[in-house]
Design a protein that fits this description.
- By secondary structure, this protein is mainly beta.
- Helices cover about 5% and strands about 45% of the residues.
- The chain folds into 2 domains: about 45 residues, no CATH class; about 110 residues, Jelly Rolls.
- It contains 1 helix and 9 strands; from the N terminus they run αβββββββββ.
- Strands 1, 3, 6, 7 and 9 form a 5-stranded antiparallel β-sheet that branches. Strands 2-8-4-5 form a 4-stranded antiparallel β-sheet, with no helix packed on it.
- The chain is elongated and about 65 Å long.
Length: about 180
């Protein structure tokens, strides 16, 4: 949510929007600093402490708001041959802080089924969603889609579709995969 575009702005409102420490200091809030991202809405905020004024914060905001636009979509064909390796099938690095939805598809083993299959969504080095997992000794073929709830991410966060197949003596594979990232 953006700060007001006219009228009075208090230090406490700036801190509520961007975060920060106590006591509040205007020098914490330079653009491209710790708390204020380089977004169009923040273009009036200086990048140095010497010129910052409260009036620079009219309409400023913490995060990107794209209103449902798709920022990234990518599909891959045949990938990930081999036994027992977790692989990054698709990846996207988030350009701005914001709320994002993640969706896509994956096909495992339409020609070469596998005994163990694991498909996950990761943000940076943390698994956030286990899309599909099975390891029961019998051969499987999977074709599925996914659509996550919206997630608040920071600039530089990496969204990864990860996959693991095992059990068909080197013929295991993801036949295809896709990743779409949409900003809300």
């Amino acid at each position: 949510m953006a700060l007001v575009s006219s009228g009075q702005i208090k230090f406490s409102q700036i801190q509520a929007e961007f975060g920060g420490s106590h006591p509040i200091s205007i020098s914490e809030y330079k653009r491209n600093g710790t708390y204020v991202y380089n977004l169009g809405a923040n273009s009036d905020i200086p990048t140095t402490n010497s010129d910052i004024q409260i009036s620079d914060f009219y309409g400023a905001k913490k995060c990107y708001d794209a209103g449902g636009s798709t920022l990234y979509t990518h599909s891959s064909g045949y990938s990930s041959v081999g036994e027992g390796f977790f692989r990054e099938l698709e990846a996207y690095t988030v350009p701005h802080c914001g709320v994002y939805g993640i969706s896509g598809t994956y096909v495992v083993g339409s020609s070469y089924p596998s005994k163990c299959i694991d498909v996950e969504i990761w943000i940076n080095d943390t698994k956030i969603i286990d899309l599909y997992a099975i390891c029961d000794g019998s051969f499987h073929t999977i074709s599925s889609g996914y659509n996550t709830n919206t997630t608040l991410l920071q600039a530089g966060d990496k969204i990864r579709l990860m996959g693991y197949v095992w059990g068909n003596f080197g013929s295991d594979r993801f036949e295809s995969s896709s990743l779409t990232v949409q900003a809300y």
